[in-house]
Amino acid sequence: MSRSIELTDEDYAKLERAAEMERVTPAEWVARRIPNWPEPLTCADDTPARTMADVLAGRIGRFSSGNGPRPGTMAERLAGRTGLFSGSNGLPSSDDVAQSFAEHLEAKQREGRL
């Protein structure tokens, strides 16, 4: 099946010049520039995905650099870290941040993840 599109004379002349520079026909020049879109994303059960959450469902933890199981929710991951921002103006002092970071690195080293 063939289709056609309408171009102004000026646009068609530009198309012809571009095609001539590559020694192809205008139709070939256009066809070469049509992107190869990937197949639509699907869920694990091969149904069409509607959101990125659908695509990633069931894959939590797959790309973890840690050795052990990781908590599933952000709240579980941040448990015990409340109070970090407890400086006099509501922001942490640089000493608090440095100490917290050092403790984090030491814990990772003890766990063999550093």
Explain what this protein looks like in three dimensions.
The chain is mainly α and 114 residues long. It has helices at residues 9-21, 26-32, 52-56, 74-78, 94-110. α1 (9-21) crosses α2. The longest helix is centred in the last third of the chain and has 17 residues, at 94-110. The chain is elongated and about 70 Å long.
Return the structural class: mainly alpha
Mean pLDDT: 75
Radius of gyration from CA coordinates: 28 Å
Total helices: the number is: 5
DSSP strand count:
0
Proportion of residues in β-strands? under 5%
Order of helices and strands: HHHHH
Cα distance spanning the termini:
60 Å
Uncertain segments? none
Estimate the global geometry from the Cα principal axes: elongated
List the helices and strands and how they pair.
Blueprint: H1 9-21, H2 26-32, H3 52-56, H4 74-78, H5 94-110
Helix pairs in contact: 1-2
